[in-house]
Amino acid sequence: AYCVVNPNWRAQDQKDQLSLLMWPLHKSRYLASGIFVVLSYAVVSHLELDLKVGHCVLLGSLAGVAICRFAERFIVIELAIQNPVGAHSIIDRSTSAPAIGGMLTILSIVIVSTLSIGGNYGVAIAAV
């Protein structure tokens, strides 16, 4: 991701520095997901498939972004603020209840909704 950062801006604390570094990643993730969804709808309409397939792609993309945000929040950001070093602590945080619970909730909601929209094919398309 390309980001222009003001060189005169100074972060007050570690959380400000982290948010400054993470913003280009967030922008590129949202932009890539948006482009992917728009192009997938174009392909679905060009191939004259049912629009439900496009909806499943949209749900899968939204779930991917949401799971990424949950994982980033509970594993990376809080860890960087609390403990700046240590690979062992990353492994410990990645298996904690908040990190896994949020992702499983999103995953189960998307599986049920895509199953009702497009059946097994909808779940497979959302997984892509």
From TrEMBL:
Keywords: Membrane, Transmembrane, Transmembrane helix
Name the record gives this protein: H(+)-exporting diphosphatase
Membrane-crossing residue ranges in chain numbering: 30-49, 97-123
Entry superkingdom: Eukaryota
